Amino acid sequence: MTDEFDDMYETFKAILDAFPPSEAVKRLELMGVREDVIQRIRDRHEQQTIRIKELEEPHAVVLGNRDTWYTGPQPKDKCWPAIEELLLKDGWSRDIAIRNLDDSSTRVVSLLNHPKEKKFSTRGLVVGYVQSGKTTNFTSVMAKAADRGYKLFIVLAGIHNGLRRQTQARLVQQLVEPNPSLWSQLTDLDKDFTPTANPASYFGNSNKTRVLCVVKKNATVLRKLAVWLDKAADYLKDCPALIIDDEADQATVATKSINPLILSMMKSLPRSAYVGYTASPFANLLIDPSAEDLYPRDFVVNLPKPQGHFGTEVLFGRYALDGEDPGQVDDGYDMIRSVPDDDIPCVRPQTKDDVEGFEPIITDTLRRAVEYFWLVTAARRVRRTGNPHNTMLIHTSVNTAVHNSFERPLQRLLNRTAETLTDTAFISRLRDLWDEETALVPAEDFGETKVSFDDLVSELPGVLSSCRIIMDNSGSEARLDYENGPVVAIAVGGNTLSRGLTLEGLSVSYFVRAVSAYDTLLQMGRWFGFRNGYADLPRIWMTDELAEWFRHLATVETEMRRDIDIYITESETPLTFAVRLRTHPALRVTAAAKMRDAVTAASSYGGQRVQTHYFHTNADWLSGNTAAARNLVAAALSNAVRVEDRSAEDRFVIRDVPYDVVTDFLASYKFHEKSPENDADLISGYIRKRVAVGSLRRWNIAIVGSSAGQPFDFAPGVSVGRNLRSRVATTTPTPDFADIKTLMSRRDAAVDLAGDTAKLTEDGIINERRVQLPDTGLLVLYPIDKTSEPDPGKKLRAPLNAEEDVIGVGLVFPKPQRGDSTVEKYISADLSGVRLEDEDLSLLEGEDA
Q1: For the segment 81-102, what is each residue's pLDDT rounded down to a tens digit?
Q2: Nearest in space to 509 (alpha carbons), one of 650, 387, 360, 335
Q3: 237 touches 270 (CB < 8 A)
Q4: Can you tell me the distance from the alpha carbon of 163 to that of 500, in angstroms, rounded to the nearest whole number?
Q5: Do the bridges between strand 806-812 and strand 776-784 make them parallel or antiparallel, or are there none, so unpaired?
Q6: Are 789 and 726 in contact (CB under 8 A)?
Q7: Are 104 and 65 in contact (CB under 8 A)?
Q8: Where does residue 638 rank: exposed (0-12), middle (13-18), buried (19+ CB within 10 A)?
Q9: Which DSSP category does 339 fall into?
Q10: Bond prior to 58 in cis (omega within 30° of 0)
Q11: I need a surface site. Which of 222, 545, 612, 833 has the fewest CB within 10 A?
């Protein structure tokens, strides 16, 4: 009986290739299959679809109860097994890496429509990480869709020829070459789309092959493709199509030509699914969901970070989110080196008038970066592991003339270095550089063995003789070509190197390009990715300001992904949730045109923590905040219902203080202007709105110190030890500025709760506050020692070195039991004093051969 059922289930799966699940069941009924057997078949199929829906990774926000017809690869498949085999040959582990890829690509395919549905137009978005294997993921999705009956595959591969060619090569290698009889190609390595005379030869019933088309997001090219598809409309009625938009935030959103052309192509395809892939989805999530556009209304998939991936947070650290303890948030690896602001005019013209005739100067930091690159390349030759290529990126400007101006001074440096290799003083300086860098980032921390200078020095002549200086930009003929043997290259470029394109073996970056938006900045980070065999060696030279921007961006990324995950647990859909994007005083979220449908987020502090981590270090500013804190304590003591002296723990809790004591404090305490989330007017406005509905009328004021610190007096009888909070270290500290990253611990957020709170999670604290103090706010004061020497083991920290002691502030708001209040404020970046270079999108409109 079981064998009979199994045979019938295999029949059902075969019918699924031709019909959606509901139609397949009807076919079984027409075949006379008993009702109880059909029900068992439906139950088993449902169990398999539930497994796909409930995969631990990736997380997905989905519109409605989409019919999950795809339950994974089948024995007769050809395209996906070919990819599996190639990846195994490349050293991927079957149990971890390939299984994770299989699961994540299966989840995406399960959210597409069944190819035999009569009509569909799906919109989805897949969010990955920069240089994290998104291409491999969408190639796997295409393979599985091809195995199940999708016929036309259009890949929109960025705006540059380099990325289009690289994508075409990857897809040919992984899809076409293993199964050449299954595929026809409308494009090739050297040729973007050119119309063919006979669409029937590709889409007629007699042609069973899948059709691959890899095109740039260029108006001329897409117009040709849109017109050709429109003419082929009679053949496309029964042609299920999958459009993959790589770098979906670039050029797709809010452009006058590209966006309408993509929508026009979809109108010619009655059965089509559009899936955008990006690591910076900010623009895509700001499209108007109600418009006939490409907002991901059907699904958003959040790909997990692959094991061993170097991302923003890993390199730059980030700030704590609500509910995180300082110990949970890493400072990042010690791989960032500071470029002094005084160096900038030497490597980038300061005005447009300075571009003509600009001659860069090889500064000490740029020379040091280049010499370290040669040392890394020599060390990797000693190790003989990992990627065979070695690349350095220099990115100071978007201007091609500026790129070209680097060729002569870099070539002179290369020639002079080759001639100086016999000079003992020069070799001694290189030894010092190598020993210093390898001491800062021990190889053992990454499972590697340090290469001694004596072992690598013999490789240096060969490294220098094989090193090429390449200007890779839209105006140059030279390109980074990794297809013809190992490469050693110093690449100077701009936009052609800043999107999607993989810089193989990238170990050193010199980056001082100023940009104005999150997405542009994030995509510039070509140093993100995998560094197998040399994970201890990458270094990035950049300004301290840029490093802070990337640290902020790491926080935005983490918070955005956490938001998506929260919406999943709360059963939201892409049409009922809006991801919040934290603002920055000097950066836009994305280009202004892409934000035209965005609304100012209504801020609600319910259940949130607010804490200070930026401070001025001058005496006047700090003294004003000390006076405000002492006035707060005095007013709180005068109005409190009860004062708890916990001086044995270096803590005080002043209970049931009127709210106006808090708002008066917020009117006099100064938050640093770089902290838009710490807006005193916004917080006070929220408190007053809550007071009007009967909440937040009473507050607890806590003072938290450290027994290891010298006493700090807030009022007679109210004294605690000063806390130690070192600042993030930079090579050239910004005058009058300190960033301590994190102030509050989870324990502090429960300081006014009764009972044993030591083991409470963040959710546990929120729930306990709802029980014990449902309408009471908490304000915590932290006296911070002005010197605050870091622990010896904290290499990325430096003494605070403020002129006076610092007062840190944390606020904890109860989570409302019913509806919350909201407050709004438009926050616009003041870019008037910053010289910024945005992406050059002129290529979108240009004629393309």
Answers
A1: 999 999 999 888 888 889 989 9
A2: 335
A3: yes
A4: 6
A5: antiparallel
A6: yes
A7: no
A8: exposed
A9: P
A10: yes
A11: 833
Read off the amino acid at residue 192: D
User: Residue 577: which of 274, 248, 247, 300 has the closest Cα?
Assistant: 300
State pLDDT tens for residues 716-764.
999 999 999 999 888 777 889 999 988 888 889 999 999 888 888 888 8
199-258 tens-digit pLDDT: 777 887 777 899 999 999 888 999 999 988 888 888 888 899 999 998 877 767 767 788
Nearest of 91, 144, 140 to residue 115 by alpha carbon: 144
Prediction pTM value = 0.66
3-state class (DSSP) for residue 11:
helix
Please give the distance of CA 546 from its chain centroid, rounded to a whole number.
16
Q: Which residues pair with 184 in a beta bridge?
A: 211
**Whole-number Å distance between alpha carbons of 512 and 342:** 12
DSSP-assigned states of every residue in 154-198 = EEEE-SSHHHHHHHHHHHIIIIITTSGGGEEES-BTTB-----S-
Hey, what amino acid is at 318?
R
Q: What phi, psi does 539 have (nearest 5°)?
A: -140, 150
Q: Are strands 711-715 and 718-721 parallel, antiparallel or unpaired?
A: antiparallel
Which tokens belong to 681? 């007017």
Distance CA 529, CA 506 (A): 9
Please enumerate in sequence order all residues whose Cβ is within 8 A of that of 740, keeping only pairs 6 or more positions apart, or say none: 613, 615, 725, 726, 727, 728, 784, 800, 808
At 229 the three-state DSSP class reads helix
Type of residue at 310: F
Distance CA 384, CA 177 (A): 29
If you search the block for the tokens 């496309």, which residue do you land on? Answer: 236
